[in-house]
Each structure stands twice: as structure tokens, then as C-alpha cells.
Specification:
Elements lengths: L16 H10 L4 H16 L3 H28 L6 H5 L3 H10 L5 H7 L1 H6 L3 H31 L5 H11 L7 H25 L3 H14 L5 H14 L4 H30 L6
Length: 278
């Protein structure tokens, strides 16, 4: 009679069965697995009703405004020192953590999530579904940030000091010309797409991944179309910009840059590295 192998028995590689299981648990998922997780997420998002996408997008616009608020809180509370901007930039991650951990719809996340299903099945129907989601979520995000900006500007919800801090944070946009708006938007779009790609394998480190990648956007002076739209609205209310400047000098170039960085660069490259394995 053959002897039964004990749980701790060694394989031909000198590793026990239980250790093989541990190796499988500790190993990072293969790239095609990450691709499939993100692709399925995008496919699910495109199947959601328009009303669900809309209200989730509005919620994301409201939530992302807390990035500027958190930055302003740190900026006004920290002593005037050379390191203050670097610490204050940590506040930028707050709004993104709220949006992503709550699974709200953020336009820049969709520049990779809904693009991967389209690249796998490139057809007019899939392009329509992607365009539908982009249009609804972008409009909803911008409405959410507009409401947040008006609420902060015309109600006594903030102290004058804190509101002044938000204006000071927002005025960093005034020093950026249109070409740099675009190219800084590419970097930001790439970082957000990279964050979305990393989250499936992050597990318990998801909080750290989101914080790190979004902190780099603020610390690097990159531009994000949704978080930045809240700042642009504040600048219009404060009289630093008029509405057409917010659109032409900020919204259009940054939107284009975010799409190029998230879709044309990261999403296409991510698909290219797995297309022969799926």
C-alpha cells in the first residue's frame, strides 16, 4: 500500500506542499490577471444605468473638492518654512481617497478602465458605450465641483482664513501656461492610470498606493481636470479668471492631457503587453 504524503512532505523541488501554497498566496498576480480585473471593472461601469453614473459622478466631484480643502487646512496651520508646501501637498490625496475607496465615478480613472474593454473588442457599439460613460461622468464631475465651489464661496461654511488658503492653493494655476497645462495633464493622467493598474495587486496597501500616486501629482505640480476644475471655479469667483479663461486656459488643455496620459499612453501600453496572452 502506498504511503500517504503528509502535509509537510517535500516535493521534488525541496519545497513542501504547504510552502507551495504560501508561494502562490504571496506571489503578485500576473500581468494578464491585472489586465482582466481592470477590464472587467470597466465593462461593469459601461453597463451601469445613466442615472447611476450621473449621481456617482456628482458625488465624486463633491468629494474631490476636499483635496483642495485639506491642502488649505495644512497650508494655513503649518509654520512658514521651506518644507511647508511638500507637507501641505499631502492633503491633495484626501479627496482621491474618498472617491476611490467609496467607488465613486471619477473621469480620469475611466481613461484606462473603460478603454481596455474597447481595445479588446474594438467596435462601434463599444466606442459608443465608452463615449457615453465619458460624457456622463465628465459632466457630472464638473457639476459636482461647481456646486462645491459655489457652496464654499457663498456660504459661511469656511472661515475667512481657510477660504483664503483655498484661494492661495488655487492660484498656483495662474502661473501655468497652456502648453504646460497640457503636458502636466499627460503626467497626471499617466499617474492616475498607473494607480488604477496597481490597485488590484495592492490588497491591504491600497490606501498607500492611492496616497502616494496622488501626492506625486500635487508635489510635481501636475494638473488634474476634475480636482483642478474646483480650483478654476474658485478663481472665477475670486475674479482672477473669467469663465472663458477657465475653459480655454485650463479645462481644454488639461482634459486633453489627462486623456492622452491615461489612454493613449498607459492604457494602450498596458494592453500591448498582454494582447498575445489573453
Amino acid at each position: 500500500m502506498a504511503k500517504r504524503k503528509s502535509p509537510a512532505a517535500k516535493t521534488s523541488r525541496g519545497i513542501s506542499d504547504s510552502e507551495v501554497h504560501d508561494i502562490e498566496e504571496l506571489s503578485a498576480p500576473r500581468t494578464p490577471v491585472i489586465y482582466e480585473v481592470v477590464r472587467r471593472l470597466g465593462d461593469e461601469e459601461m453597463r451601469r444605468p445613466a442615472s447611476s453614473l450621473w449621481w456617482s459622478g456628482v458625488a465624486a466631484g463633491l468629494s474631490i473638492s476636499f483635496s483642495v480643502l485639506a491642502e488649505a487646512i495644512l497650508l494655513t496651520r503649518l509654520p512658514d518654512a521651506p518644507w511647508r508646501p511638500l507637507v501641505a501637498d499631502l492633503g491633495y490625496s484626501v479627496g482621491f481617497l474618498m472617491v476611490i475607496m467609496a467607488r465613486q465615478q471619477l473621469f480620469t480613472e475611466s481613461t484606462i478602465t473603460v478603454v481596455l474593454p474597447v481595445l479588446k473588442d474594438l467596435s462601434p457599439a463599444m466606442l459608443w458605450r465608452m463615449g457615453r460613460l465619458w460624457a456622463i461622468v465628465l459632466a457630472a464631475n464638473l457639476v459636482g465641483t461647481l456646486f462645491a465651489a459655489l457652496f464654499c464661496s457663498f456660504t459661511p461654511v469656511l472661515t475667512p482664513e481657510l477660504y483664503g488658503g483655498m484661494i492661495a492653493v488655487s492660484r498656483s494655476l495662474l502661473d501655468i501656461d497652456v502648453p504646460r497645462m497640457f503636458f502636466a495633464g499627460i503626467a497626471s493622467g499617466f499617474l492616475i492610470a498607473a494607480m488604477v493598474w496597481m490597485i488590484p495587486s495592492a490588497e491591504s496597501a491600497k490606501f498607500i498606493v492611492i496616497t502616494l500616486m496622488t501626492y506625486l501629482i500635487a508635489a510635481g505640480g501636475f494638473t488634474h481636470v476634475i480636482a483642478g476644475s474646483f480650483e478654476a471655479y474658485l478663481l472665477v469667483v475670486a475674479g482672477d479668471w473669467i469663465w472663458w479663461q477657465a475653459i480655454v486656459q485650463f479645462l481644454m488643455p488639461v482634459l486633453a492631457g489627462n486623456v492622452v496620459g491615461g489612454t493613449a499612453l498607459f492604457a494602450v501600453l498596458s494592453y500591448a503587453q498582454v494582447k498575445d496572452e489573453i
